[in-house]
Specification:
Blueprint: H1 15-28, H2 32-62, H3 69-80
Length: 82
């Protein structure tokens, strides 16, 4: 069984956010540390995804892989139907 080494970090959080975090932790029967780890994990995943998508878009632009005028007209035509 593998265990991941944990490290302690410290940061400042305003009281209102801490109180809200503690209230959520209490409702979920979890501790503050658990929720903070979940929040940071979600934050990291979101930004990793965004960075990957941005890099993909940049690569497509560098390769001049753009939608044609016809493709754009077709897409906007779908939005104007109805």
């Amino acid at each position: 069984m593998s265990t991941i080494a944990k490290e302690t970090i410290t940061f400042r959080l305003d009281r209102t956010k801490r109180e809200a975090l503690d209230a959520i932790a209490k409702e979920l029967d979890r501790d503050r540390s658990y929720l903070l780890n979940e929040a940071i994990e979600n934050y990291i995943e979101i930004y990793k995804w965004q960075i990957a998508e941005i890099n993909l878009a940049i690569a497509e632009a560098d390769a001049e892989d753009f939608a044609s005028d016809e493709d754009v007209d077709t897409m906007f035509g779908r939005f104007n139907e109805g």
